[in-house]
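Changelog-adjacent note: as of this version, every example in the card shows the full chain rather than a window. The one below runs 327 residues end to end.
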Amino acid sequence: MCIPNIPQKLITVILSLILTAGVFFFFKRTINYKAIQLDDVLFADALIEQYKTPEIIKKIFTTPVYIIYTSAYYRPILPLSFYMDNVISNGVKNFSVNHSTNILLHLACVLLLFYFLKTYCFNVFISFLISAVFALNIFSVHTTAWLGGRNDSLLFLLLFLSFIFFIKANEEERKKYTYLFLHIIFLVLSLLTKETAFLIPLLCFAYEILKKYKKNTHLYIAWLLITGAFLILKTKYSNNITFNFLFNAVELKKNIYMLSDYFSVAFLLSKDEIYPEFNKFILVKGISIPILIAALAFFSKNRKESLFFLSFCVIFLLPNFMIDRVL
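Full-length structure tokens:
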């Protein structure tokens, strides 16, 4: 029996549709959820009247993330997204709009990850498998059911877009400056979403060394100016800012174990424990995941890029290891 030679683009479209259907089937029940865990107090309900006033945009960009509550976080993109939800619902409280937005943002993350892995790391089927686990794992409930959890989806989208355009700027000479401009735009938006975005330049610098790109001195200067400007904004518009970014070596064992637990929960769908007691079994399970991905990467045609993909979690969990609220 002759097996038809299916075009790669068609396979990609089919797998993307499967991912889309999986996300909607898995999370569709959350559309009918009401507000949970302070959603109504912080975003989706308490600000309904303020969203109707034209001054709200200025307030979003000149106050801490919760607008009407004191906070150390300056993250205007998140409340801006709730303002856009309010526009869609014509100023009427409608949690189904909020939850639908969360699902669509999560789906966009899944498809972007699939594109990134397929383009730069693995073959289409391994990329699909990893994206499917990312799409339907237990942690994804946090970004769909909890309205405020969409901030992680927003960060994921903006962060990956910034990084992808950085790669394109270095590999496609014809549109180099267009891609650099887009890289900077998404970097700025990322910084306005979550503080973790400070590490995007570190990610790009490490990838530049890996791929032996030409040095982008002007880009280094731009990164420095942008992050400096964001620090000034954060200091000005956050009510209780602290800079406790010193690594606590005493907690190193707990941090390694927490990272293992993240891997264990996300990839093996085991029990989610935020602060679990030390357990060698969970440690072994967690360590087995990067080993498995490394093994897949070893047999990939893009071996170096695939192995570099493993560093993402390390780079972007660094703040979790370094700031006092997690320790």
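Structural remarks: Residues 41 and 236 are 24 Å apart (CA to CA).
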